[in-house]
UniProtKB/TrEMBL annotation:
SMART domains: AAA. It comes from the Bacteria. The keyword Transport applies. The keyword Nucleotide-binding applies. Keywords: ATP-binding, Nucleotide-binding, Transport. PANTHER family: PROTEIN TRIGALACTOSYLDIACYLGLYCEROL 3, CHLOROPLASTIC. This is ATP-binding cassette domain-containing protein. Residues 6-244 form the ABC transporter domain. One of its GO terms (molecular function) is ATP binding.
Length: 256
């Protein structure tokens, strides 16, 4: 039986008196590629920020390996975060640093590796994402798809237990997007990480997701949870079936 890696319990998210989502309850199992999805403005990225500890919940909690995040001490929270890898929609690379410098940053901050060992790890992580030999390139010197992969190399620098992605395919052409999806699956399998993604891209949802939650903008709560293929074909919620059966090429900019 699968073991929950992340548990969201009775979570309500709000900005002041304005509730974004309420009463969220779901588990993300170890090894899942889990998608947070829903219509524009439903709170997907807000949920991700809560899971990262960037925002405090109005109510409820999030548990990592059965340990409460929001009841934990700052030291315990920092220890948890060191087991995570995060990539942002824009990539989030430091433009004044080379790719090697970007990947080196978490190694320098959180490990005791020697400079020589760090160089070997940097080369290995960049090679894993198809950027072997690009250590001395700056982000401005490579394509958008390559920047996404470089950000992923930095995210896996510490061999994280959990990888978080905020719209990883945003701004990429379909071929680059598919290649990035394939890379995420390969890395998930090779390092055994649990993957949590915010995305509205149907090729990604159906291509790699093993589980998902749907946040509804109107009722302000989750109305579907499970394998997205099953939800597309059998969900009792028409809005969920419509969302998952729409044409994959339809543009939908998501701001949550």
């Amino acid at each position: 039986m699968s073991e929950p890696h992340i548990s969201v319990r009775d979570l309500t998210m709000a900005y002041g008196p304005s509730v974004i989502q309420r009463d969220l309850n779901f588990d993300i199992n170890k090894g899942d590629i889990f998608v947070i999805m829903g219509g524009s403005g439903c709170g997907k990225s807000t949920l991700l920020k809560h899971m990262l500890g960037l925002l405090d919940p109005a109510k409820g909690d999030i548990f990592y390996n059965d340990q409460s995040f929001f009841q934990a001490s700052m030291k315990q929270q920092d220890d948890m975060r060191q087991r995570w890898g995060i990539t942002y929609q824009s990539g989030g690379l430091f433009s004044a640093m080379t790719l090697a410098g970007n990947v080196n940053l978490p190694l320098q901050l959180y490990t005791q590796y020697s400079a020589s060992d760090r160089e070997d790890i940097i080369a290995y992580k960049l090679a894993l994402v198809g950027l072997g030999g690009y250590q001395n390139y700056y982000p401005s010197e490579i394509s958008g798809g390559m920047r996404k992969r470089a950000a992923l190399a930095r995210a896996i620098a510490l061999d994280p237990e959990i990888l978080f992605f905020d719209e990883p395919s945003a701004g990429l052409d379909p071929i680059s997007s598919r290649l990035l999806d394939e890379l995420i699956v390969q890395l998930q399998e090779s390092i055994g990480a649990t993957v949590v993604m915010v995305t509205h891209e149907l090729p990604s949802i159906f291509g790699i997701a093993s589980n998902s939650v749907y946040l509804d903008v109107n009722t302000k709560t989750m109305i579907a949870y499970g394998d997205p293929r099953e939800l597309r074909d059998h969900s009792e919620q028409p809005v969920v079936r419509q969302f998952l059966a729409r044409e994959s090429g339809s543009p939908e900019e998501e701001q949550a």
